[in-house]
Amino acid sequence: MSKIINPFRISIYTNYVNESYFNSIKSEVLHFIKKNKDSLIKSPNWIGDTLTNIDSCKSKTINTPLLSKVIKTEVENYIKTSSSFNPLIKNLSLEDLWVNVAKPNQYQETHDHTGSLISGTLYIDVNNQSGSFQFLNPLNSEFALQGLKGGINYVHNINPSNGMILLFPSWMQHRVLPNKSTKDRISISFNITSKF
Ligand SMILES: [Fe+2]
Predict the structure, then answer these.
(1) What confidence score (pLDDT) does residue 105 get?
(2) How far is the CA of 112 from the centre of ligand 1 (A)?
(3) Out of 2-11, 18-27, 111-120, which region has the weakest mean confidence (pLDDT)?
(4) How much distance in Å is there from the Cα of 44 to the middle of ligand 1?
(5) How far, in Å, from the CA of 174 to the mean position of ligand 1?
(6) What distance in angstroms lies between residue 2's CA and the mean position of ligand 1's atoms?
(7) What is d(CA 22, CA 123) in angstroms, rounded to the nearest whole number?
(8) Does 163 reside within a domain?
(9) Average pLDDT of 26-52?
(10) How far is CA 134 from the centre of its chain?
(11) Region of poorest pLDDT, from 29-43, 91-105, 140-154
């Protein structure tokens, strides 16, 4: 009897933040951007020209107790429900947290967050023209060997909407497509590390 086995599945997590929490976080983030707009720059480590505070002003953090609480809850839920993570993982730590402001036509190139365990994004102000978040299939090299590069399942798109939180293994390669709307595409991103 023939049998298909799919042993190496990758779990990507999405959820929507509680509306009242999201409204508070959104006003905090928009206030931060307004107050620190001169500190938001194109990162020298990024190819795309999305504006950020990732390198320039770590002391000017956008972190708040509410944001930490929301991220912690969702990360714990991801670990608990995905079965992709060792249940013995502990000492989860929010290592980096930064804002992304992509003006019209700005994008972010393919990259990963290797070195962390889980990475994620919370969408603050986006619309259906803002540009998808795109995962590259880690089996791309196998597809290439089969002459299928660029074929089915080469990428997986996440179409962001306001209040959506997206979590994924930090090693996964991803990019953000150009913002085709006339408004800034605003999100925050973060990295989570852990110790066993
Ligand atoms: Fe990223």
Answers:
(1) 93
(2) 6
(3) 2-11
(4) 15
(5) 6
(6) 40
(7) 10
(8) yes
(9) 82
(10) 10
(11) 140-154
Amino acid in position 185: R
| 1 belongs to a structural domain | no
How many angstroms does the Cα of residue 175 sit away from the middle of ligand 1? 7
pTM summary value: 0.89
Q: What is the span of the domain harbouring residue 185?
A: 13-129+158-195
CB 63 within 8 Å of CB 98: no
Q: Read off the pLDDT band of 57 (50, 70, 90).
A: very low
For residue 118, the CA-to-ligand 1 centroid distance in Å is 11
The pLDDT of residue 196: 60
Q: How far does residue 89's CA lie from ligand 1's centre (Å)?
A: 22
- Amino acid letter at 69? K
Q: Ligand 1 mean position to 172 CA, how many Å? A: 9
CB-neighbour burial class of residue 85 (10 A; exposed 0-12, middle 13-18, buried 19+): middle
Residue 4 lies in a domain: no
CA of 114 to the centre of ligand 1 (A): 10
* Cα 183 to ligand 1 centre (Å): 21
Overall number of domains in the chain: 1
Contact indicator for 17, 26 with CB cutoff of 8 Å:
no
CATH number of the domain that residue 188 is part of? 2.60.120.620
For residue 151, give both structure tokens: 């074929």
pLDDT, one tens digit per residue, over 117-146 is 999 999 999 999 999 999 998 877 666 666
Cβ atoms < 10 Å from Cβ of 81: 11
